[in-house]
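#structure-requests
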Amino acid sequence: CWAAHADAYVYWANEGTNTIGRANLDGTGANVNFITGANDPIGLAANDQYLYWANYAGDTGTTLGRANLDGSGVNRSFITGANQPTGLVTDAKHVYWGNSGKNYVGPFSMGRANPDGTGVNQNFISVPAGALAVDANYVYWTNYYAGTIGRANLDGTGVNANFITTGPPYQPEGVAVNG
């Protein structure tokens, strides 16, 4: 039986208002302005310590933000040098994000860094990566324009950009994995 932690919440990105929202798991206590000053936040991920978000920000989107789960310690430029970051996911060892390229014309890549912001690699895997998911062995991503789901080992080897081909007219925008 799974029980929710007393300090567990639902978080969401408010792209239009440049904020991150938060509510209790039962939907009460919603605060749409939990964190302010994001820059077109799109991707959002959390681990047991931090909340991360991608600052897409139109023509200037180059950063990932991070804050403590209680909203303190906000760093809007936690990781710099991204290229219009979108999808974002984290596991115990890394944070991964998709670099969608200015106006979605590239260069495309998946970035990766340690949860503390060290070891940044903006070109961890050279693939168009939109939404991301991670499990104990692989990182998965969507390629909206190709109609595919890709997969690679967590160390960046074994890249299979056509792991699943959905084909036209299907254009995957989200991906999740359990197990």
